[in-house]
Amino acid sequence: xxxxxxxxxxxxxxxxxxxxxxxxxxxxxxxxxxxxxxxxxxxxxxxxxxxxxxxxxxxxxxxxxxxxxxxxxxxxxxxxxxxxxxxxxxxxxxxxxxxxxxxxxxxxxxxxxxxxxxxxxxxxxxxxxxxxxxxxxxxxxxxxxxxxxxxxxxxxxxxxxxxxxxxxxxxxxxxxxxxxxxxxxxxxxxxxxxxxxxxxxxxxxxxxxxxxxxxxxxxxxxxxxxxxxxxxxxxxxxxxxxxxxxxxxxxxxxxxxxxxxxx
Length: 263
Description:
The protein folds into two domains: 8-104, no CATH class; 111-260, no CATH class. By secondary structure, the chain is mainly alpha-helical. α1 packs antiparallel against α2 and α6 (173-205) packs antiparallel against α7.
């Protein structure tokens, strides 16, 4: 027997509340289940509001659950969609549903770690460093949390609705490929900022702060172009990665040599 369909306004409100609750997923992190209590706190009220829950909270939510918190919405949204499908008479077995959710959690963890922790956070840190260096004001350091949150907060909410809308297909090839492509471009831009920041620091340490200032961005842009070209050549060519990495180190050495000899 199919469950009674909730009113659209009620369903929409339940999803918005679940998306808001997902922002606090790790507030009840524990060693045994990791984020499982947070997941239950997010999903159980939403399942009841969507008429997709039984008389008791599903015990499967107490199983261990772990993903990148900034990409958690992908798995949680899909879990709600699968629960709603089961209530609407399109059931998948509980084990099959949990396998799908676990797969999406693992994928969200991998992509989230690479995109947010390993790429976006260093990029924001470099931007904040350059702003502090250029302005001389400690207030410029607030660029770090502002920039990081500007991408991270919408990503958390959008990934939730992507997961709910697509269900088991939430992590489509095009979505993951787009995120990984964006991460590669951001990584290249981080190389540019790292080169510029390093030259500014070395210039300041040498006691001639400002002498290379009019050259630093030209050198950094040259390094960015070379790094981007090397990354493009290495894409899909495993055998070229080693030699091209050596070439990139040589270019980096020349970059510093030119910066150090700037009049």
